Amino acid sequence: MSIPADVLRLGTEVATRASTTVASDGFVAVLDHVRAYGESSRAALAEATGMGRSVLTQRVEALLEYGLLAEDRIGVSTGGRAPRLLRFRADAGHLLVADLGATSTDVALADLSGGILVHRQEASEISAGPDAVLAHVEELFDACVDEAGVSPDDLWGIGVGVPGPVEFESGRPVSPPIMPGWDGYAVRERFADRGVPVWVDNDVNVMALGELTAGSGRGVDDFVYVKIGTGIGAGIVVDGRIHRGAKGSAGDVGHIYVQAGREVVCRCGMSGCLEAFAGGAALGRDAEAAARDGRSAILRALLDEKGHLTAEDVAIASKHGDPVSVELITEAGRLIGQMLTGIVNFFNPSLLVIGGGVAGAGDLLLATVRQTIYRRSLPLATRDLVVRRSALDGRAGVIGAATMVANELFAPEYLPGWLAAGSPARHA
Ligand SMILES: [Zn+2]
């Protein structure tokens, strides 16, 4: 992107005054509105932002020059001449994103609206450590850029989701239980060679953002996304934004204590955690025990065939009517519902989105979760509560990581700086 000198000067001016005037707010407000709706007339913008006509015109003209807005469609006339529509140019820059799970890596090249242009998913083990995992991510990034034929100059940012707690400010994982070698690792600095800003967050927060942008949470201001995969975690959306909490560990619901009637030590070292009974790893463990004890012929057959069992095997066996597997899934659903009852009574969301590999295992789990919540919650908290499966499945993470980067690039604290520099890359 090449920026005319007078626009650069305007950007510098904006950056200098950013903290004390509404100049940057004007840019952010205009961009936020057009990004949210995809397109807008100047009249609708004036109404939404409350900006005066001349200021608005100046902001819009500058954003048109930056190439962040385009004006090329004719809207519907409300009498008189039909207005031209301003549209957000999602293709003005590109983003590289990675969603790292416990056992898989999703990498994508996205546009500035979270639209996925190239997506690759590969099996990988997060426990292999940051050097091996991120080297693999780098290779996949290169493959995505090559496949899309995007110039490195058009890369504006990188977003990474990791399966553990992250200090959002520094982008470093903090004591992640299933990520040996990742504690305090400088993920952001690892990608410094690409010369663009990097943001890192917990994978479940990123998935919740994906649901908010393009999935079941679209248009919903207060909802909770619950991922039931190898482990269990939640992303909390409050007033349309991710709630990370004081230190970034909000939503770590897998380690909430539940009444399971037995003691199992969790991988975090404590006893009685939800995840230790109802996570995918726990279901696989309990299914293997049942197979070895001779309690389930079908699980025994699956174990003999594969050498180990996963939550997916339990789902398959339950669909064939295996009573042990039905009981395992029902019990997991009951315990997840027990935990979510606390969340519902405390937070009063209008929507719970259930995602992750185990959630995809079938209707039995979701039905049990729903039943438990309705039975145990206060009537007012569940009056309009919707409990729904994720519609995005494996794409929630990459869409959400792209949204995270776009939100940060266009945030009031960041936008003026890189507009002044000419591009996010020059400002990184
Ligand atoms: Zn735990």
Task: Explain what you see.
Helices cover 44% and strands 18% of the residues. The protein is α/β, with parallel strands linked by helices. A 5-stranded mixed sheet has the order 6-5-4-7-10, with helices on both faces. The chain has a 5-stranded mixed sheet with strand order 13-12-11-14-15, covered by helices on one side. Strand 4 and strand 5 form a beta hairpin. Helix 9 crosses helix 11. The longest helix is centred in the last third of the chain and has 25 residues. The two termini are 15 Å apart. The N terminus is likely disordered. It binds zinc ion. Zinc ion (ZN) binds next to loops.
Strands ordered across the widest β-sheet: 6-5-4-7-10
- Count of individual helical segments: 17
Any idea what the radius of gyration is? 24 Å
Largest sheet: 5 strands, mixed
Strand content: 15-25%
Mean of residue pLDDT values: 89
What is the total tally of β strands? 15
Short description:
By secondary structure, the protein is of the alpha/beta class. The chain has helices at 5-17, 23-37, 42-49, 53-66, 130-148, 187-190, 203-214, 275-278, 280-292, 297-306, 311-319, 323-347, 363-376, 379-382, 396-409, 415-421, 424-427; strands spanning 39-41, 69-74, 84-88, 94-100, 104-110, 116-123, 155-162, 166-167, 172-173, 198-202, 223-228, 232-238, 241-242, 351-355, 386-389.
